[in-house]
Write a structure and sequence with these properties.
Blueprint: E1 3-4, E2 6-7, E3 10-11, H1 14-17, E4 27-28, E5 30-31, E6 41-47, H2 55-71, E7 75-81, H3 97-109, E8 116-117, E9 119-122, E10 126-129, H4 133-144, E11 153-159, E12 162-169, E13 177-189, E14 201-214, E15 219-226, E16 233-240, E17 247-255
Parallel strand pairs: 6-7
Antiparallel strand pairs: 1-8, 2-3, 4-11, 5-17, 6-9, 9-10, 11-12, 12-15, 13-14, 13-16, 16-17
Length: 258
């Protein structure tokens, strides 16, 4: 079921879219294979701790992450916590206006009348209600059946809160961008207000930093990220066509807190 926020009392229409340690030794990230012909699925979940319809979508994403880890399938999941629910009694500490703007780009791309949560976008090409397991799994399997068009290679190292990601993309469609995100592997909250008051909320792959690099030429350099605290997580990098278009290649590297 879609939960839409209505402004003023709250619609978000397309017109409005547009445990820390003191230090850690450098730790290399394990890069997932990304140069073969295998398919991949980049799952972007737009969610909020202030939305009572979102916990089932968060749980579904967690299951898909666990299953892909066990099977070795190239599934890259990201939880983007939007901020437009924050005014309704509970401020999501993972929320960002930047993530709401990213969702707005998809709203324009898919010609949607407003933003809603939970929304899942697969490979930048198909959107659906993020808790609809049947639709989500069908879109995931369809994505995995198509070979990646652009090889992406990543290697990540961390020192303290700084994460350095060496990315290599030899070819990309005109106007494409390279997006590189840091995600916390897991997170949890216990809201004392809002629609999820009294519930224990659990999340996976929560986006905490995101950088974008125009790909007007082959790219072979480092992208610098910041993580809010030293904890288990991953770097996820993907190449996306212009205008929040199709995602044509992706890779990831895990980093353990040390």
């Amino acid at each position: 079921m879609r939960s839409a926020i209505r402004a003023g009392a709250v619609i978000v229409a397309c017109a409005l879219l547009c445990g820390a340690h003191a230090a850690a030794a450098a730790a290399p990230g394990r890069a997932a294979p990304s140069t073969d012909a295998a398919g991949f699925a980049l799952l972007e979940l737009f969610t909020s701790e202030g939305c009572s319809s979102c916990p089932p979508a968060d749980a579904l994403l967690a299951r898909l992450v666990s299953e892909s880890r066990d099977s070795g399938r190239r599934v890259y999941a990201l939880s983007f916590h939007v901020d437009y629910w924050d005014r309704l009694g509970w401020k999501d500490r993972f929320s960002s206006a930047a993530w709401s703007r990213r969702q707005g780009e998809y709203a324009r791309r898919f010609d949607l009348g407003s933003l809603y949560t939970p929304q899942l976008v697969v490979n930048g090409a198909k959107e659906m209600v993020g808790s609809d397991a049947t639709q989500v799994e069908a879109a995931l399997h369809a994505a995995l059946a198509r070979a990646a068009r652009v090889p992406v290679m990543v290697h990540a190292t961390a020192r303290g809160l700084d994460v350095s990601v060496h990315c290599k993309v030899e070819q990309a469609p005109a106007g494409a961008v390279l997006l590189v995100a840091w995600v916390d592997a897991t997170a949890s909250s216990a809201p004392d207000n809002g629609e999820n008051r009294g519930r224990a909320l659990h999340h996976v792959n929560v986006v905490r930093d995101l950088r974008s690099v125009p790909l007007d030429r082959p790219f072979d350099a480092a992208v610098e990220l910041k993580r809010p605290e030293i904890r288990d997580g991953a770097v996820i990098a993907w190449v996306q066509e212009a205008g929040a278009g199709a995602v044509v290649g992706a890779a990831a590297a895990e980093l353990k807190a040390r």
